[in-house]
Design brief:
The protein is mainly alpha-helical. The chain has two domains: 34-169, Helix Hairpins (Orthogonal Bundle), CATH 1.10.287; 173-231, no CATH class. The chain is 76% helix and 4% strand. It contains five helices and three strands, in the order ααααββαβ. The protein has helices at 3-31, 35-80, 87-169, 173-185, 208-214; strands spanning 191-195, 198-199, 229-231. α1 runs antiparallel to α3 and α2 runs antiparallel to α3 (87-169). The protein is rod-shaped and about 130 Å long. The two termini are 13 Å apart.
Length: 234
């Protein structure tokens, strides 16, 4: 097997390893991405806090309403007890009862409004809890598939790594170092195949003499434009 062919096949293995590692990085990023669950949790927590706040206000309003009714009962009891005979005092008591009942109506309206608000928020809160559970379920199912895919990729990486070791061991250390350096400098592509007298990496057309040199079995030929190792086989 010619040296350019060995390097070209090594390049193919490394490209597959690069793709596999990129997939692993994507999977890890997806596994660490919890924005949908966090959003659903925040939504449910905000509604829960709002519900607690409104329920406390409702509880206070109901207490105020009961206290107001008690005041009315006490005032009416005094008004109709017969103990107060002064017309002016009776009129004042009557006015006070009227005012107390007017404010009671305000309190009753407030309680009703808060009860409706509690019902509305409760409905939204229950819906948010359902959405949260659904999101967790979907995320769990997605993660299960991602873990399966991750395991498959690890198996593929293990196979490719063993295959790479075989090819790398058949190449001299200086050439291998040169190849690795080119891969670092050329965005992972150190070897380019020549197709129709053209470098497949940069697209430049090879001269006739360079094309003829590429046919050499063990001599390394480099693209005049991009500097990559050229492989002329098919």
């Amino acid at each position: 097997m010619s040296l350019p062919l060995k390097l070209f096949q090594l390049q193919n293995i490394d490209s597959q390893l690069d793709q596999a590692n990129s997939k692993l990085a994507r999977i890890d990023a997806e596994l660490n991405e919890h924005s949908e669950i966090n959003h659903a949790q925040d939504r449910a927590r905000d509604l829960e806090n709002n519900l607690d706040f409104i329920q406390n206000k409702l509880h206070q309003a109901e207490q105020d309403m009961q206290a107001q009714r008690y005041k009315i009962e006490q005032t009416e009891s005094t008004l109709y007890s017969g103990k107060v005979t002064n017309p002016k005092e009776l009129q004042d008591l009557q006015n006070e009862v009227t005012a107390l009942k007017r404010y009671l109506k305000t309190l009753e309206d407030r309680v009703l409004e808060l009860m409706l608000t509690v019902d509305e928020i409760s409905t939204k809160y229950q819906k948010a809890l359902e959405d949260l559970e659904l999101t967790k379920s979907k995320t769990g199912e997605k993660e299960k598939h991602l873990f399966i895919e991750k395991k498959q990729i690890y198996t593929e990486i293990e196979r490719l790594t063993k295959e790479r070791t075989v090819f790398a061991n058949s190449i001299s250390e200086p050439v291998l170092q040169q190849y690795n350096q080119l891969r670092r400098l050329k965005r992972g592509v150190a070897v380019a195949q020549v197709i129709d007298r053209t470098c497949s990496a940069c697209g430049s057309t090879l001269s006739a003499s360079l094309q003829q040199s590429v046919s050499s079995l063990n001599q390394l030929i480099y693209c005049d434009t991009c500097g990559r190792i050229l492989y002329g086989g098919k």
